[in-house]
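In the design runs reported in the main text, the only information available to the sequence generator was the tokenized backbone. The following block is the verbatim input for one such run; it is reproduced so that readers can re-run the procedure and compare outputs position by position.
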């Protein structure tokens, strides 16, 4: 009999973890298909927590593209957080996909996104939790093919042993080709399929390439099998279609918005930047396609913010007309536009003025270095006068939050370059004060510093990383030299961050000998190494020592330009000769100009006559609107709605329910009323929150509108765009001066359904004791720590309704002026010594205001 892991997880695991909404799936726009024989089943795995992975645009693009094939079902899985992993292992439950609850070992193909080097142990952990052997040599014929891809595929050698195939470059179409060919070769051996698939352009089969090392440990050759391509060339393709039905999660995530990729690649040539080198040539999206697909995505998701993504959004040739056209549609809907990746020399004040009309979301720039000389050496030149002048215009337009990224330890960095960072900060703050003399909210800078990490396929791939001792001294120097005045934030650099950057450098320039270290560190408990609260450098130090490997050899040693590097058999397009030339120019402090629009630098990615590719065609302007009507300052109508929260929605917290309803109301195109101020918010107000895991049959929400709509029509429209488990029941218009739900609702009735009767006599005795007592002190957790509260005044009624088949307790609970304990704490008190509290199914069956011994409808 097939195990129903979905049911087991919901009954035994989710009630006991912090954020079960990470694992329930069923997000708005999730793709569902009927499982049938012959269907190729793929699971896309992201080796980080859900909130990070679901926001990754490449993951969403691949998810939509693969599922366009009716014979393919692509599902998803993300790294479980530590509390979830603990319970999975304790209960011998395999890690399963979100869509169908299928163990990872039950798929045909598992594709892992290698986003960065510090995710390696999480990738290993995904396989182990999914019941899949860690290395390709250990896997049986009936187990999934393991694919890798993403930015980390530029040098996957430290974890090459876990992959059957790795995609180099753009993965959208080649992944589909792999699936199609693998399906056609059903019945052939695993080895035969891997050999055939490795002949596809952009597909690397690590098992077909064999490194040879000298006695002193240096790599001297990488031998390919006779019919294996050498080198393995990266695949690059035209831009794929944008997803229009973005997944809309039920909990807050990083980059909680629609992300639109304007173009791929970059020809600026920053010498430290791996993404700018391996994603060449530049390929721009058609601006009309961006506009059309973005509006569809807004309608399909209900998001309140849109973000343009690229290595430098300001370099998009049609940015200004696209922003102008787009803001005509977004302003009336109160949807903000953000540009998180900017260069000051390509950012203009007209764009800033346009995107700031809805909400000023904050701007981010990355000068990287404080001095003009060092910026010239790394090929990210911007003269200081232009830098300050551009920021001055931004401050004048009302922007008051600015983030600046810098790097320490760049090749050629000197003491005066560190001092130049603090000097630049002083000048920026002085200019901000000069151009905003009377503003209540003074501009603030958020300074972010990172230690330089030499990356493969860049001109700095041969450089060594600055040792951590010297890096710490330079951080301390900068901290001393920064001005003491208010107006900026500079986070303290912890030893932990330096160790993380060091490990990243080790893995970035690593070879296959590091696999044993990665495996050992994982076995010792290394997880979520990019998260400071989980990163444990001692584990890694022990792993290096046990395997007899010196990590300094990888991170700190400068390589000779003729030395064979572990990634030299992987061709990302940019030639080795070009990288050597750029390294020489960096040492001489010489700039290399941008190849666009027609200044090819012959980097090797394409023939000079065909590169750069033509820019996007011009945006066709729309008719200009003279005036945008933003709605009245006062709400015109207030509608009170009753709804149910059942099923998987019980695992969604109250704050996340607020976002869920906001986005549903946008999808339903309700004329929401918004508050006035710096960050206008829609007029939604909720009744008292349900504890996580509780269900509710009579919950309440007030919605403010700018114009009247029939409450019945609102109920119908919203139910079409709300997820299963949330359903509006009835609605009515209420006067604008009606007391808020938070003030009028002070009572609720709860049904406590027990999984087993236990000793019913003890339950009845405890209930009788509570009702007879004048005081019931119960300990519960709060932000201030554990506190003891008297629950007795809040208990209006408590009765045992148990029988052998359906034991339950009914509780009527009131909110008291002097403070009221949580119902969850009372449930735990009632069940002690009888049944574990998390096993109790709690349903709020009524909520309202207490009057004459009854709960009245608010």
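Verbatim output:
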């Amino acid at each position: 009999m097939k195990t129903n892991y979905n049911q087991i997880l919901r009954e035994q695991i989710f009630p006991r973890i912090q954020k079960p909404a990470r694992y329930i799936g069923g997000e708005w726009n999730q793709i569902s298909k009927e499982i049938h024989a012959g269907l190729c089943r793929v699971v896309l795995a992201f080796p980080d927590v859900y909130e990070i992975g679901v926001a990754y645009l490449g993951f969403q693009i691949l998810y939509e593209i693969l599922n366009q094939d009716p014979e393919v079902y692509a599902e998803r899985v993300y790294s479980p957080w530590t509390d979830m992993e603990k319970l999975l292992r304790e209960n011998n439950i395999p890690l399963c996909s979100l869509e169908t609850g299928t163990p990872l070992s039950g798929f045909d193909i598992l594709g892992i996104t290698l986003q960065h080097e510090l995710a390696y142990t999480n990738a290993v952990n995904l396989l182990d939790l999914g019941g899949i052997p860690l290395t390709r040599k250990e896997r049986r014929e009936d187990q999934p093919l393991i694919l890798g891809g993403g930015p980390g595929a530029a040098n996957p050698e430290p974890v090459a042993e876990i992959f059957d195939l790795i995609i180099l470059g753009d993965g959208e179409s080649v992944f589909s080709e792999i699936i199609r060919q693998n399906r056609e070769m059903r019945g052939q051996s695993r080895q035969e399929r891997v050999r055939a698939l490795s002949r596809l352009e952009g597909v690397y089969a690590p098992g077909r390439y064999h490194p040879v090392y000298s006695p002193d440990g240096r790599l001297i050759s990488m031998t390919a099998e006779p019919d294996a391509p050498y080198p393995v060339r990266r695949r690059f393709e035209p831009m794929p279609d944008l997803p229009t039905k973005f997944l809309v999660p039920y909990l807050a995530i990083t980059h909680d918005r629609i992300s639109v990729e304007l173009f791929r690649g970059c020809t600026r040539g920053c010498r430290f930047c791996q993404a700018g080198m391996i994603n060449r040539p530049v390929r721009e999206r058609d601006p009309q396609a961006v506009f059309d697909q973005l509006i569809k995505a807004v309608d399909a998701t209900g998001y309140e913010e849109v973000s343009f993504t690229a290595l430098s959004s300001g370099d998009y040739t049609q940015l200004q007309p696209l922003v102008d056209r787009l803001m005509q549609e977004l302003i009336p809907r109160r949807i903000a536009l953000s540009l998180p990746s900017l260069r000051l020399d390509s950012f203009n004040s007209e764009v800033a003025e346009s995107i700031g009309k809805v909400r000023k979301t904050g701007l981010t720039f990355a000068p990287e270095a404080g001095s003009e000389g060092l910026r010239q050496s790394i090929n990210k030149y911007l003269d200081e006068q232009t830098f300050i002048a551009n920021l001055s215009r931004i401050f004048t337009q009302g922007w008051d939050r600015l983030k600046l990224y810098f790097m320490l330890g760049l090749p050629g960095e000197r003491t005066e370059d560190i001092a130049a960072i603090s000097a630049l900060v002083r000048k920026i703050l002085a200019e901000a004060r000069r151009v905003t003399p009377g503003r209540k909210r003074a501009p603030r800078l958020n300074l972010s510093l990172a230690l330089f990490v030499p990356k493969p396929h860049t001109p700095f791939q041969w450089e060594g990383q600055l040792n951590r001792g010297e890096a710490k001294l330079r951080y301390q120097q900068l901290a001393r030299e920064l001005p003491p005045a208010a107006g900026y934030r500079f986070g303290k650099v912890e030893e932990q961050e330096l160790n993380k950057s060091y490990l990243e450098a080790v893995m970035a320039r690593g070879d296959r000998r590091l696999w044993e270290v990665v495996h050992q560190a994982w076995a010792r408990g290394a997880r979520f190494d990019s998260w400071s609260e989980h990163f444990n450098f001692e584990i890694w130090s022990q792993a290096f020592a046990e395997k007899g490997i010196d990590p300094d050899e990888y991170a700190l040693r400068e390589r000779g330009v003729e030395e064979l590097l572990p990634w030299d058999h992987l061709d990302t397009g940019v030639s080795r000769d070009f990288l050597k030339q750029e390294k020489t120019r960096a040492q001489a402090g010489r700039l290399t100009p941008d190849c666009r629009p027609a200044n090819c630098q012959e980097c090797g990615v394409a023939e000079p006559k065909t590169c750069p590719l033509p820019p996007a065609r011009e945006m066709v302007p729309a008719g200009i609107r003279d005036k945008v009507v933003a709605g009245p300052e006062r709400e015109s109508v207030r509608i009170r709605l009753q709804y149910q929260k059942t099923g998987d929605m019980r695992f969604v917290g109250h704050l996340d329910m607020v976002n869920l309803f906001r986005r549903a109301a946008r999808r339903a195109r309700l004329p929401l009323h918004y508050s006035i101020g710096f960050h206008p918010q829609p007029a939604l107000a909720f009744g008292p929150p349900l504890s996580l895991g509780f269900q509710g049959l009579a919950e309440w929400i007030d919605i403010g509108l700018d114009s009247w709509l029939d409450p019945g029509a609102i109920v119908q429209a919203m139910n079409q765009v709300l997820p299963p488990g949330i359903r509006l029941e009835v609605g009515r218009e209420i006067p604008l001066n009606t007391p808020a739900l938070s003030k009028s609702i002070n009572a609720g009735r709860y049904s406590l359904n027990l999984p087993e009767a236990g000793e019913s006599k003890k339950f009845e005795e405890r209930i009788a004791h509570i009702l007879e007592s004048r005081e019931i002190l119960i300990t519960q957790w709060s932000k201030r720590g554990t506190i003891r509260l008297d629950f007795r005044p809040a208990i209006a009624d408590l009765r045992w309704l148990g029988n052998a088949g359906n034991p339950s307790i009914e509780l009527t609970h009131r909110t008291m002026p002097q403070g009221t304990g949580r119902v969850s704490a009372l449930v735990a008190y009632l069940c002690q010594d009888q049944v574990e509290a998390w096993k109790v199914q709690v349903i709020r069956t009524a909520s309202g205001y207490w009057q004459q011994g009854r709960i009245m409808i608010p």
